[in-house]
Amino acid sequence: MRHVPALLLLLMVAYVLFLTMAEAPAFGVVDVPSRNLVVDRYLDPDPEETGVPNAVARIIFDYRAHDTLGEATVLFVAVGAAAAVLVGRPGPFATRPVTGTDDPILRTVARLVIPFVQVYAVYVITHGHVSPGGGFAGGTILGGSFVLYLFVFGPGRAARKLSPARGEMVEGLTALWYILVGLGGLLLGASFLANAAAGFPLGVPGKLLSGGAIWLIGLGIGLKVAATVANLFLHLAGES
Amino acid sequence: MLKHLPVLLTVMPLAGAFLVPVFGRSGRGHRMALVTVAVTLLAAVTMLGITAGGEVLRYRVGDWPPPWGIELRVDALGALLASFFALVYLAVTIFAGRDIPGELNPASVHWYWSLLLLLLAGINGVVTAHDLFNLFVFTEVFSLAACGIISIRDRLDSLEAAIKYLILSAVAAGCILLGIALVYMVTGHLNLSYLAAELPMAARLYPKNVLAMVALLTTGFALKSALFPLHVWLPDAHSSAPSPSSALLSGLVVKVGIVALIRLFTTVFTGPVIAALPVPVFMIVMAVGGIIFGALFAMTQRDLKRMLAYSTVTQVGYIYLGFGLLNETALTGALLHIINHALLKSMLFMCAGLFIHRTGKRRIADMAGLARHMPLTMSCFTIGAMAMVGIPVTNGFVSKWHLVLGTLHGGQPLLAGVILLSSLLSSIYYFPVVVAGWFGHPASPPPPGPEGPPSMVWPIVALASLCLILGVWPHLPLRLLGDVARTLLGR
Amino acid sequence: MEISLGLFLRLNYLVAITLFLIGLHTMLTHSNLIKKVMGMNIMETGIFLFLVSIGYARQSLAPIVDQGDGVIYANPLVSAIVLTGIVIAVSTTAYTLSMIVKLYERCGTLDVDRLERLRT
User: Fold this and answer.
1) Which of B148, B156, B163 comes nearest C100 by C-beta?
2) Residue A190: is its pLDDT beyond 80?
3) Is A74 in contact with C88 (Cβ distance < 8 A)?
4) Tens digits of per-residue pLDDT, B246-266?
5) Which of B346, B358, B324 is CA-nearest to residue B467?
6) Least C-beta-crowded within 10 Å: which of B278, B325, B487, C29?
7) Does a structural domain hold residue A31?
8) Domain count, chain C
9) Neighboring chain A residues of C63 at a CB cutoff of 8 Å
10) In a domain? residue A10
């Protein structure tokens, strides 16, 4: 009975949204309002403006890099707030803590797999501007290798590789790196987060070392996301 | 350097926040936060000096022209709000230096300073944004940081309140993001000016889409700014947070959602299409509900901070009322009330924080006779209470006066009656506290000693004197806000 | 009739909105905190699906713009928005979950109603 108001509200929302969808622009065609001059410039086949062929990387690290700064900040806020909350655990109802495993198969396989995962992560991070992927995806993979280490060898040994204090420091420094690259654009006489306009060398499009600030920011974001994932898991595993 | 101020307003607090976990672990965090907030205040005041004549600062992030890149805009309203917000922030940060280390686990104190600066960055990001998606991103920054400075207090009620706040805030974020998706689908733009230019066309082709978009965005931001009946998270969150956090949450954070809505309704949702929608009427009805019910709930509270939190629901109602009337006098009153309430409520929450810091008690009944031991604080609380009720020579009177005039200009004398009735109700819950504080007998006197550390008393006194100054000489902000209101309404 | 035909032609939008509503329903009516977080994620997934569908055109490719002439690419702006949105959703989820972990260790329950009763 107590759900009746919520259900009524939901039915109302559903009715409005379904009516809206029924008259929305058609699905799957090119001739829609959202394909306008904005998207055309983003999709310009000649990469002279930004120096990278990956249009998504162009947008998140160049045209709309300010949004991505906000996004990196949100990650930082989540880590900070979670770290602050998880101080003072465990309480009276704590379940069994995360420990490592003694299973030799798991330990051997993890030891074998982790270096490959990390190499792959570095590949995805450094090639984000020429292929799908990039700092966010690669950083998550790098962080994932740390999470695998944590579950197999236990949080204590994982914290010896990267202590929470050091993890937070990496977190802060990589976020700061983003701002420094942005300020670099400002000091070079253009605007905050400017790339080609500030004279960052764009290199040869399609090559590894190209894209100027896009490449630099992508590198920082990769490390930052990895530190975020590692930090969150360390804190949740009760290591502070 | 001056032309980069709009972006630096957001970037400076961000840089400070990122530096705190690196260098601020050994007690330096507070000083770092103070310096950052002071510099931000300086930047905001400089921009106020530039924009006061009606100039609008435009900034292209990354040197990309508007429909492709992100544009920031600071007009007189943005600069004025940023200045006052940073001023309140400075007072609260000074106050928090002595209050926070005692309330938190020592291992998490440095995160408090970091989160405080992130909250400031989020607020400034929203105030300067001229791009719908950028607005959303910074809304999320300040929402998460606002939860963070509640849940950092190692108590069960803070934790529960923060979870409730965060979940409702996620619902709001979902509404806003879906609204952005809908508006992008039919216009193809995210920059507010370009959206405004495309919207009339889109509204003719896809009327229901525009309607749903307006409804979703309004609901989302109203939920973030605690418009009745979406205020359910506010009393718990604002009363269980550490006192400096309460001051910031009640004083600034709820206002940011309103500022975002004012921006949207004056730049994007204009013209005949939106005039046909009953959104202003809806807002006025909800505002009246908030004014009346907030006051009624505040009357029944025994906890001082809870009472102040319900009073915020009422004051948010006032601001929405002035906004919904959409005439020049009422909008001036609403904008002035945003500033006045930011000063007042932060000051009142800091008074409450000092009471709690000194005596360890937080019930209203325990405040009897406190004037004997804490005369300065009690005087400031009295000024705050008078301003909340709307007694002349305080700043609260000026903004309420304009709101009442605005209701009469709008031909709604009934709403003027609502404001007067609510003033009566606020006097019913504020004045017993004041009378008991000055003339009551304390049940158990607090430990002897000075009133409190100077760094906690003087911020309160400074804000209280500012309230009086703005009450006696309101001309400067009034003239500025009058111009702003005319510009916003396009007259 | 017209409405159902319109919806059928926009099946992606229909499914995305349905996901949004399922998530919203879960968030509003379930008292278990973990379910609320799951609802939050389903809701956001619905929105992301909707955004990605806006940017899709038939036979469009991923927007790496070095694949020759005459090729249609998916709208990269919505992909960028979704990327940002996902990161924000992940951050919110991680933070909420850490609060829930602590809450559970303090009170031994995840149920909002039972928490309310514990308090009084």
Assistant:
1) B163
2) yes
3) yes
4) 999 999 999 999 999 999 988
5) B346
6) B278
7) no
8) 1
9) 42-43, 54-56
10) no
What's the domain range around A187?
50-90+97-236
B174 touching chain C per CB within 8 A:
yes
Q: Which residue range(s) make up the domain with C100? A: 2-119
Whether residue B364 is predicted with pLDDT greater than 70 in this model: the reply is: yes
Q: Dihedral angle at the C-alpha atoms of C41, C42, C47, C50, nearest 10 degrees?
A: 140
pLDDT higher than threshold 70 for residue A240: no
Partner residue facing C92 (CB), from B160, B166, B184: B166
Query: Is residue C119's pLDDT more than 60?
Result: yes
pLDDT-derived band at A95 (thresholds 50, 70, 90) equals: low
Q: In chain B, what residues touch A177 (CB-CB under 8 Å)?
A: none
* B60 phi, psi to nearest 5 deg: -100, 110
Radius of gyration for chain B, computed over Cα atoms and rounded to the nearest angstrom? 22
Give tens-digit pLDDT for B266-300: 888 887 766 777 888 889 999 999 999 999 999 99
The alpha carbon of residue A91 is apart from the nearest alpha carbon of chain C, in Å, by 5
What is the CATH classification number for the domain harbouring C21?
Answer: 1.10.287.3510
CB nearest to C76's CB, from A19, A45, A59: A59
Residue A41 lies in a domain: no
How many domains does chain A contain in total? 1
B156 touches chain C (CB under 8 A): yes
- Rounded to an integer, what distance in angstroms lies between the CA atom of residue B230 and that of residue A13? 16
Higher-pLDDT residue of B92, A135: B92
